[in-house]
């Protein structure tokens, strides 16, 4: 096999892996959405509830940083949860209500059900292999995201440096 053929095979394998990962990602998202609907949550709302302390008010800015979203995005999400009486908002402090605490505790049950749907027929050994492989894939994806976002930021900086103000 030539170097060109080996490279092409590697590229084909990477493309097939990407297609499989995307398909699994979409199926997992859809499965999670179905299970979250049973406790009247939409995808993502679980993350917002889990980011809150069960005992004391949580700072909105800290939650936004933890979830890696803009403060305004987090504020709007908590406003929607507040309308449903799952949280109370006092300035920049978010507190789980009793109903919110109950819903938050049901999220782990939802995650267990999703896990059962995903891995119910897999052996313990297979589950361990998949978990290890996914951890490695996750590290690669995070690294790629960091590199790409840094590249985008540096391209933006270079472009803004090239633009000079018009002079009279």
Give a description of the structure.
By secondary structure, the chain is mainly alpha-helical. Helices cover 73% and strands 6% of the residues. The chain contains 6 helices and 3 strands; from the N terminus they run ααβααββαα. It has helices spanning 3-37, 45-50, 60-67, 71-83, 98-119, 124-162, and strands spanning 58-59, 87-90, 93-96. A 3-stranded antiparallel sheet has the order 1-3-2. A hairpin with a 2-residue loop joins β2 (87-90) and β3. α1 crosses α5 (98-119) and α3 packs across α4. The protein is flat, with a radius of gyration of 22 Å.
Keywords:
mainly alpha; 168 residues; three-stranded antiparallel beta sheet; 6% strand; 6 helices
Quick summary:
The chain has 168 residues and is mainly alpha-helical. 73% of the residues lie in helices and 6% in strands.
**Spatial order of strands in the largest sheet:** 1-3-2
The rough form would be described as flat
Mean pLDDT: 89
Structural class: mainly alpha
Helix share of residues? over 70%
Number of helices: 6
Largest sheet entry:
3 strands, antiparallel
**Amino-to-carboxy terminus distance:** 64 Å
Order of helices and strands: HHEHHEEHH
Rg over CA atoms, rounded to whole Å, is 22 Å
Residue stretches low in confidence (pLDDT < 50, at least 5 long) are: none
In total, how many beta strands? 3
β content, as a range? 5-15%
């Amino acid at each position: 096999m030539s170097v060109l053929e080996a490279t092409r095979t590697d590229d084909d394998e990477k493309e097939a892996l990407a297609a499989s990962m995307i398909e699994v990602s979409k199926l997992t998202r859809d499965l999670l959405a179905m299970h979250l609907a049973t406790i009247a949550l939409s995808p993502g709302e679980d993350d917002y509830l889990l980011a809150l302390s069960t005992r004391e008010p949580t700072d909105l800015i800290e939650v936004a940083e933890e979830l890696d979203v803009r403060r305004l995005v987090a504020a709007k999400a908590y406003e929607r949860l507040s309308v449903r009486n799952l949280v109370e908002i006092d300035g920049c402090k978010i507190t789980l209500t009793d109903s919110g605490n109950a819903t938050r505790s049901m999220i782990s049950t939802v995650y267990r059900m999703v896990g059962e749907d995903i891995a119910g027929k897999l052996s313990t050994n297979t589950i361990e292999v998949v978990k290890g492989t996914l951890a490695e894939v996750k590290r690669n994806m995070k690294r790629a995201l960091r590199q790409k976002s840094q590249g985008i930021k540096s391209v933006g900086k270079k472009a803004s440096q090239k633009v000079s103000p018009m002079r009279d």
